[in-house]
Amino acid sequence: MGNKLIDLQGISKAYGKHTVLDDLNLYIRENEFLTLLGPSGCGKTTTLRIIGGFESPDKGRVVFDGQDITDLPPNKRHLNTVFQKYALFTHMTIAENIAFGLKIKNKPKSYIDDKIKYALKLVNLDGFENRMADSLSGGQQQRIAIARAIVNEPKVLLLDEPLGALDLKLRQDMQYELIRLKNELGITFVFVTHDQEEALTMSDTIVVMNQGYIQQVGTPERIYNEPENAFVADFIGDSNIIPGTMIEDELVEFLGAKFKCVDKGFGNNTPVDVVIRPEDVELVASEKGIISGTVTHLIFKGVHYEMEVMANGYEWLVQSTKMWPVGTKVGISVDPFNIQIMNKPESEDEEAVGVDE
Q1: Which CATH number belongs to the domain containing residue 259 in this structure?
Q2: What is the pTM of this model?
Q3: What confidence tens digit (pLDDT) does each residue in 194-214 have?
Q4: Range of the domain at 39
Q5: Final residue before a domain boundary, out of 166, 195, 225
């Protein structure tokens, strides 16, 4: 990935008394697939709209390729946006839809025709030039919306939950399409979603947001395996998050039992949060576990079984390829490497905010 392309510096935005973004700093590199991920109302769409020029920040600057573009209107920025509502012109053919932006720029007809062919090929809709937009399925319309954005050769493509309205199979197909397009076109993608699986599948970099703050920035692997706080751990994938006490380096106590771990530097007898992914909980014969409990729920998920185990007053979520029937007494054991220790937030407010990048 290349140099810094977009730099958001100290961006704040409020609507009335409601602060949506609070001193947000973030940069996006050339040819990066960066995803803004978070629950509804966390500020991710507002961030995208500020990059696109559809909203102005109250404070802060948007720098694009070294130039301050904070006050430039959307049509003067080298970027295109694909919204969840595809907004195709239903009374026009596909070719006319795709050519719309190029006609405004007064490009010659032969250039436009070449571009239409090229864009349709890229989104696997060869030969659709003369179809009407409203005769297409949702997935096809979405691909046309992307083709329409691509022909303008933007340096950046902004995608606001563009797969939100599609069914699962189609979404997965489109995820692969988008990764392929990014690789073929060398454009920077900034993608907004609340779907963690989508973010993990597609991104080079994930920015996890909550309540107008960035919680963590990192690769999908890092965000999943090393979440920086309980919010990120809980939002990305399922986790068992259990209050505990760090007795000393590499030893933590929770649910009345002592577990070895690999974390250091938390001091002695410090209150912490313990995070264990469901796939990292090992079920063993009840006398062989560090603690023991009873299986209370069981669902078959295709690749694995998902079970709930009540042990020492806590309902553990467990994923395993081995099935333990409901009612079975089991022991719970966890590899020290799979226990993650996090500092407890000092206040409720910090709990919402977490780490400030």
Answers
A1: 2.40.50.140
A2: 0.80
A3: 888 889 989 999 999 998 999
A4: 4-225
A5: 225
355 is a domain residue: no
DSSP letter string over 61-107?
EEEETTEE-TT--GGGSSEEEE-SS----TTSBHHHHHHHHHHHTT-
CA pair distance 220, 124, nearest whole angstrom: 28
Handedness of CA 10, 32, 65, 187 (dihedral sign): negative
DSSP state, 41?
T
Q: Which residue has the higher pLDDT, 228 or 25?
A: 25
Same domain membership, residue 262 and residue 142: no
- Here the CATH number for the domain that contains residue 10 is 3.40.50.300
Dihedral, CA atoms, 333, 339, 341, 345, nearest 10 degrees?
A: -70
Token pair, residue 52, equals: 């696109």
Predicted confidence band of residue 136 (pLDDT cuts 50, 70, 90): confident
Give 117-183 as a 3 state SS string.
HHHHHHCCCCCCCCCEHHHCCHHHHHHHHHHHHHCCCCCEEEEECCCCCCCHHHHHHHHHHHHHHHH
